[in-house]
Amino acid sequence: MVEQVQTKVVTVFQKIVDGVVCWKRWSWEEKSQKVLVIVNQMATGTLLVDSPTDCLIRCEMASRGMTGEVTVAYLAEDNDESSELLSLTRRADFVVLATGAKISSAIDQQVRTYIQQSRLDGQIGKLHWLMNSGGKHVHPVELGGLPWQFGPVG
Fold it and tell me: What is the 3-state secondary structure (H, E, C) of 129-150?
């Protein structure tokens, strides 16, 4: 019997503004792909305790070999950090809009503004919608374990 112990150092960061978590980042390998996933929910958990959505996102990105860095940005009606989102987008190699189709008008406006700012900043090619097999925009939880599919953001 051959025993093997594997280790990986993961650094976890989060940014909090006025008591609200704006984003959370897990960093494994500095020189590998950096992914940003934008979800429409308030952050739950703590720095070291992940939400179910965080776990789904990290597992999916790791299964795709996207293990350099995963950042989850949380959209909420009382948290309009559009300049922060653009900064995170510039840092990322691949961006997933995982807001789903059932969003409030305030969140919808945040997403539209963010897409427009990304277009003006030359970042639009990085943006992709998370979609189900029918082409509908979905939140990671809505997929219920089905494979993730991405579509371009026009």
Answer: EEECCCCCECCHHHHCCCCCEE
